[in-house]
Design goal:
single chain, alpha+beta, 2 domains, 5-stranded mixed β-sheet, Jelly Rolls, 4-stranded antiparallel β-sheet
């Protein structure tokens, strides 16, 4: 009942925003969950095309329905799992080390962290990365290898930035990878981010940002490392 009332409130907020924009509201009572999700996604794209910040109520509505349509994607958030420290979110952030174990199968590492950006700051703003509250991860790579990094399972419009030779805002920092939306890598989740790359040994800084200042909340960050794949 509480979930139903919440969705109704989000639906009302989206209806108002559509009406203000001069568009016909979606008929929520006659549409499937998939159709409602698609209509809300289209509305988000309309805001972006008009260079207007997406209202937080529209984002909330979209992700409420996405959880209903894609429960398998959002089931990866595990209560009590390892989290990045959102209260100490400035560079260098949480430090993770990736190295070869030396034995068979030890060249692969998977790290999944879930948490919140709601209390984080915007330490890595536009044009360096994006407008949302962000968390930072220091990646210490001790052996050349392949990285696949995604935000699958997150509940806001994420954006990823990866830097070398310095942290975000450092004059020597070089942005080497960035991604806004990559559904192909994120189990079809259209507002989740992801990229793959091969990295030499060294120190890198990964920023998990929100695409807009209204994009914040629960995240899941998956980092897959394979020491032998790039060879």
């Amino acid at each position: 009942m509480i979930r139903f009332l919440s969705l109704m409130l989000c639906g009302a907020a989206l209806t108002v925003s559509l009406a203000v924009a001069g568009e016909r509201p979606v008929g929520f009572g006659k549409s499937s969950k998939e159709e409602i999700l698609q209509a809300c996604y289209d509305k988000i794209q309309w805001y972006i095309a008009q260079d207007i910040e997406v209202p937080e109520s529209v984002y909330d509505f979209y992700f409420s329905f996405e959880q209903l349509v894609m429960p398998e994607v959002h089931g990866r958030r595990v209560p009590g799992a390892f989290q990045l420290d959102e209260l100490q979110d400035a560079c260098p952030g949480t430090s993770l080390t990736f190295e070869t174990g030396g034995g068979e199968g030890d060249g692969e590492v998977v790290v999944i962290v879930c948490g919140q950006t709601s209390n984080a700051r915007n330490d890595c703003g536009y044009p360096t990365c994006r407008w949302g509250k962000d968390v930072v991860v220091e990646l210490n790579v001790e052996d050349f290898g392949y990285f696949e990094i995604t935000t699958t399972g997150s509940l806001f419009d994420t954006y990823l930035c990866l830097y070398e030779d310095g942290c975000c805002g450092d004059p020597d920092a070089e942005l080497i990878e960035a991604n806004d939306n990559n559904p192909g890598m994120c189990n079809g989740q259209r507002l989740a981010s992801g990229f793959s790359t091969c990295l030499d040994d060294g120190t890198y800084y990964l920023v998990l940002d929100g695409s807009f200042s209204t994009a914040r909340g629960s995240y899941c960050l998956t980092i897959y490392y394979d020491e032998g794949f790039c060879d």
